[in-house]
Amino acid sequence: DYTQIYEEDEPYTEMGPNARVWKVYNQEVIRVDSDRIEDWRDGLDSLLVFAALYSAVITTFVVQTSTKLQQDWGEVTANLLMELILVQRAGFNGAPVNSIPPSHLTPSSKFTPRPLDVAINALWFFSLALSLSTALAAIVCKQWIHQYTNMPPIGSPKEKAHVHHFRFVGLEKWHMAGIIGILPIFVHLSLGVFFVGLVILLHDL
């Protein structure tokens, strides 16, 4: 009962800086916000942990498959060495050197990646970018929550109530609850895109 916790205001001071109504307001908003803020923080913490682990895993796949988007100089070197060995063997055997077919891979040959490799890497790069963007948004949301709950240590109860209301209006204006609620959807989308690329890769094996 707030009437027993806080003393009754003197006449004509019911809306003053230290009035009981502001003290009751500050106490009630802490109670109302605590459950919602705790749910937000738990959800964002779980999201950040999953996004970090998932980004590390998909980065490993991207590092392996992105090499197929450029010329494999090891393969070029192996082909040229094989051609050189065949030329030397033909010379030792007295066979004409012109009979050795030239290697189709040379440093000057034009390289074009397979459309399948391009598709897989495009899907996985998009998935990685979406996961990292979601993690960044979660960090920003946690900063907003910290600013929302970090009330000024000094000031009258009326000033603290006004600060809280100003921040609450800001959260409602920027649809804080909706943003936090939609972040897991982006993680699910990122995971789905990754699995599509994985299925394409396994089907090509």
UniProtKB/TrEMBL annotation:
Pfam families in UniProt: DUF6535 (PF20153)
Chain ranges passing through the membrane: 44-63, 118-141, 177-202
Record carries keyword Transcription regulation: no
Segments forming domain DUF6535: 22-202
Family matches, as InterPro entries: DUF6535
Keywords (A to Z) from UniProt: Membrane, Transmembrane, Transmembrane helix
Name of the protein: DUF6535 domain-containing protein
Source organism: Dendrothele bispora (strain CBS 962.96)
